[in-house]
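Changelog entry: the NGG1p interacting factor 3 protein, NIF3 record was regenerated in this release. Current contents:
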Amino acid sequence: MELSSVVDRLDEELRTADYADLDASANGLQVGPEDRDLERVAFAVDGVRETVDRAVEADADLLVVHHGLSWGGFDRVTGRTYDRIAPMIENDLALYVSHLPLDGHQQLGNAAGVADLLGLEDRAPFGELGTEYVGQRGTAGDPYAPDALRDRLETTLETGGQPVQHLDFGPDEIEDVAIVTGSGVDWLDEAVDADADALVTGEGKGNAYHEAREAGLHVFLAGHYATETFGVRSLQDRVAEWGLETTFLDVPTGL
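Regenerated structure tokens:
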């Protein structure tokens, strides 16, 4: 399959253009020629030297990641940036990136994957950002005890052996859950306004403790990496359906 065909199909599926003015990430094809034939595609959360090297070792033609290289453009291609890009060019490895479009996709996205894990029903977009959304909310058919929800996240996510942090300030039963993966505590007030019992995200900020306490909201910090493997894994399944060989490169950070 041609690279341009894969890029066009991913861009259409993920509505990449709709996030162009909302995301600092240069989503879409970040490194690569105008066209080439593809046989093998590697998938990873982060576009870093380790995943690039492993994609080269796997003889991949394309690496698809959630966190890419270009955030607002490059001033210089030196140092760490050069070390990541050079092996791609040397080994004819293309790089495709989907950041917020993959967070916000209501079927394939990261938040949708966490909602699947928790068995949430009656789902709706959550995490408003301009005209789009970067998360999802839903209702647990059988309400969770707070410790049970934490244990569910801790035992099923790829946390790198790290515990799920829990700001235990909400009700005794958790039914309505809001999810923004990665760094999502900026949507804490939106979760409160939506009458959610809990917000599930990846990592916190210092102000989240008191804001959650004052609002009476559970906040679960399950790891940036751990909450963001779902989207690229879903894309891997989709690309495999197109007849391409795929592999997932798991490089958990514990963060």
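The domain at 1-97+227-246 is CATH 3.40.1390.30 (Udp-n-acetylmuramoylalanyl-d-glutamate--2,6- Diaminopimelate Ligase; Chain: A, domain 1).
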